[in-house]
Amino acid sequence: MALADREDALSDWLAGHGVAQDWVLGPELAAAGADVDWCERVAAVAGEAALAAGLEWVASTLETTGLLAEVKDSTRRISDLVAAVRSYSQLDRASMQRTDVAEGLESTLMTLAHRVPAGVTVVREYAADVPRIQALAGELNQLWTHLVDNALDAMDGAGTLRVRTGWERSAVVVEVGDTGAGMTEEVRAHAFDPFFTTKGVGEGTGLGLDISRRIVERHGGDIGIDPRPRETVLRVRLPSVGPAARARPAAGTAG
Ligand SMILES: Nc1ncnc2c1ncn2[C@@H]1O[C@H](COP(=O)(O)OP(=O)(O)OP(=O)(O)O)[C@@H](O)[C@H]1O
Ligand SMILES: [Mg+2]
């Protein structure tokens, strides 16, 4: 079926299932390779109640990760999407709240203040226009704690801890950088593996980054290591979902 026909069929299906953003989601899902059959399967696993939010979340995740660019109807893609909606619909929606990442970073830094030695300078670079994101705020604070913990460990008493927020194409970006020991290629390759640690017995369990990655993925984002000259940067991207962050025809702007 041609893309335009699939878009129309999807938009009709969405409208028929009470999904409000049919005119936006139809084309987005069509571009990702979804069709009406796929929507039927999603409706079966997610249930009508979670359908609209789940589809919106998937569409925005696809958009953020650039998957919309590679258009194909592969079975694998379809089952990934179904799995994504299923995990979304199982999230504890009640605790999802619009979250300011800089606020979370600040409260984390406050909690860890006693761990910051006198020789470590903390530099904050919070961009002004970062949108709030739909997130489990407590989990994000856990995530920041793991990253700051690692940075402090790596610096061994002296250096600069840099905490940065920014905003790029439908994702909020948070970076935690340190001027510590850095990672070898080998460590970088395994840093996210569960139980991988270079720390001594009783000092590290090797779960910090494994847990961090799970938290990030639960929010539909990604995390990576960005080694820069004299700085090790852990970079987190979290999709921003919600009306403020998504391109959408202006509604109700009369006049
Ligand atoms: N900022 C960093 N600079 C240098 N190495 C790092 C940094 N962050 C992580 N690593 C490396 O990655 C490994 C895995 O990190 P992870 O947080 O998963 O476990 P851990 O810190 O060793 O133990 P845990 O966090 O469970 O107490 C670390 O042991 C360390 O070698
Ligand atoms: Mg750690």
From TrEMBL:
Keywords: Kinase, Transferase, Two-component regulatory system. It comes from Geodermatophilus amargosae. SUPFAM superfamilies: ATPase domain of HSP90 chaperone/DNA topoisomerase II/histidine kinase (SSF55874). It is an enzyme of class 2 (transferase). Its EC number is 2.7.13.3. Residues 71-242 form the Histidine kinase domain. One of its GO terms (molecular function) is protein histidine kinase activity. It catalyses: ATP + protein L-histidine = ADP + protein N-phospho-L-histidine. This is histidine kinase.
